[in-house]
């Protein structure tokens, strides 16, 4: 099955993930609208997408003409109701709060084209709950991308209780058209990757809190000992510790004590040390680059 390149895709949320997903659709040939109520977020997202494309040109991965065509296919909007009108796909990437996600899809549903697919990029919340308040829950599916979207090949497709076979087949075809590899997950808290990553990152923070090793050494152990491309503390800084804490709290509530958030994560979030996006998490960052030797040590806690 192939997806018509004339089908309009709306991405809601111009944060890190929404930016990457919008770039992925536009660069794969689909007319794409990125929606956010914050004009600064939209401007920043468009600049970041332009940089991804220009870097691709510089590396010889895409032509200048292809990059320009991708940008031309990308529009931005501050009005979800206007952007969603007649769209064939809606992918929401707003904050990991169930009520916020439900409000977004409920607002968009009556405006979309008949048979449109509604996808949620949630990493832990229930697709079934998000879909339950809609008139057509069978067209809702989880479409969990990974950061950075333009480099990461995997997409987890999550079947809620009502998700139809047609929605799954069409969404898998869309992943194929983007050059992504998709896996199918029957809905479960944390899916596959978020559940494993949250547990690993949480344990790494407990080790740091207890003084087992420095942040740099914990990350080095995972990179060199298990061939991970990035250590769990580096990954937490990239993802954002506020997002990681939200996921851990949900998993703790649904799956039990082994997912109880490390107190150090709670302390860091309260202090605004969220990671790369604030310039300070487990490590410090200067213009997006990690400052060598800046990792937290037990003596500083």
TrEMBL record:
Gene3D superfamilies: N-(1-d-carboxylethyl)-l-norvaline Dehydrogenase, domain 2, NAD(P)-binding Rossmann-like Domain
One family name in Pfam for this protein: 3HCDH
InterPro entries tied to this protein: 3-OHacyl-CoA_DH, 3-OHacyl-CoA_DH_NAD-bd, 3HC_DH_C, 6-PGluconate_DH-like_C_sf, 6PGD_dom2, NAD(P)-bd_dom_sf
Biological processes, Gene Ontology terms: fatty acid metabolic process
Protein name: 3-hydroxybutyryl-CoA dehydrogenase
Enzyme Commission number(s): 1.1.1.157
Domain of life according to the entry: Bacteria
MF terms in GO: 3-hydroxybutyryl-CoA dehydrogenase activity; NAD+ binding
Annotated keywords: NAD, Oxidoreductase
Regions that span the bilayer: none
Residues the record lists as binding NAD(+): 13-18, 36, 96, 101, 123, 147, 277
Organism: Metapseudomonas furukawaii
Domain 3-hydroxyacyl-CoA dehydrogenase NAD binding: 8-187
Site feature (Important for catalytic activity) residues: 144
Residue span, 3-hydroxyacyl-CoA dehydrogenase C-terminal domain: 192-285
């Amino acid at each position: 099955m192939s997806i018509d390149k004339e089908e309009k895709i709306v991405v809601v949320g111009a944060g890190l993930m929404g930016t990457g997903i919008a770039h992925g659709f536009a660069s794969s040939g689909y007319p794409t609208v990125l929606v956010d109520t914050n004009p600064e977020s939209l401007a920043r997202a468009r600049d970041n997408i332009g940089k991804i494309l220009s870097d691709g040109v510089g590396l010889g991965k895409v032509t200048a003409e292809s990059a320009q065509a991708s940008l031309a296919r990308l529009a931005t909007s501050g009005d979800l109701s206007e952007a969603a009108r007649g769209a064939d796909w809606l992918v929401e990437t707003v904050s990991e709060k169930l009520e916020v996600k439900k409000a977004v899809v409920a607002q968009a549903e009556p405006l979309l084209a008949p048979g449109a697919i509604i996808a949620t990029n949630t990493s832990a919340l229930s697709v079934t709950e998000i879909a339950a308040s809609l008139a057509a829950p069978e067209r809702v599916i989880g479409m969990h991308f990974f950061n950075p979207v333009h480099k990461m090949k995997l997409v987890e497709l999550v079947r809620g209780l009502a998700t139809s076979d047609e929605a799954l087949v069409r969404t898998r075809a869309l992943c194929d058209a983007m050059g992504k590899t998709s896996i199918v997950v029957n809905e479960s808290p944390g899916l596959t990757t978020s559940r494993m990553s949250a547990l690993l990152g949480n344990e790494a923070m407990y080790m740091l809190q207890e003084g087992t090793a420095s942040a740099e050494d914990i990350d080095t152990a995972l990179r060199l000992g298990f061939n991970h491309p990035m250590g769990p503390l580096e990954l937490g800084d990239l993802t954002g510790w506020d997002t990681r804490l939200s996921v851990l709290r949900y998993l703790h509530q649904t799956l039990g004590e082994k997912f109880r958030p490390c107190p150090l994560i709670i302390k860091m979030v309260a202090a605004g040390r969220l990671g790369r996006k604030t310039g300070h998490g487990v490590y410090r960052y200067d213009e997006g680059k990690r400052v060598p030797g800046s990792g937290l040590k037990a003596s500083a806690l």
